[in-house]
Design goal:
alpha+beta; 5-stranded antiparallel sheet; 3 helices; elongated
């Protein structure tokens, strides 16, 4: 009966190959993948980056066009106008009154019936005309 011989096993392929062998194997794999998918694997050349940026710009322009097709400006709220605002904690609607326009865009100074005043932006907090 033969005695077993101790064999050193390097399981990782890079341990057994030179770096040039690894590169050659990758090239073979790349060619096989190109044949399997019937297309070339994409790299990141400058031309491809320019094409990608151009496609992105066109897509963003198209999306902006779709958005702007039916977008409208919000109506102005005048001083003394009655509105309702939503309490962020209880989620109930509270009657309020617009005191005047604030310095920041789309913002108004409002006063609730309980006497609280504050600046509210239309886009940030729920506010509607009464």
């Amino acid at each position: 009966m033969a005695t077993p011989v101790a064999v050193q096993m390097n399981l990782h392929p890079i341990m057994n190959w030179d770096s040039s062998d690894v590169v050659e194997e990758f090239k073979k794999f790349k060619q096989k993948a190109q044949l399997a998918f019937k297309s070339f694997l994409k790299g990141t050349t400058d031309d491809e980056k320019k094409e990608t940026r151009a496609k992105l710009a066109a897509t963003q322009e198209q999306a902006q066009g779709h958005h702007n097709k039916h977008a409208q400006y919000l109506p102005e709220m005048l001083g003394g106008q009655h509105v309702h605002t939503q309490d962020p904690i209880t989620k109930t609607w509270i009657p309020a009154k617009v005191v005047n326009r604030a310095e920041t865009p789309r913002s108004n100074m409002i006063e609730t019936e309980s006497g609280h005043t504050g600046v509210i932006a239309y886009s940030e907090s729920p506010i509607c005309k009464s």
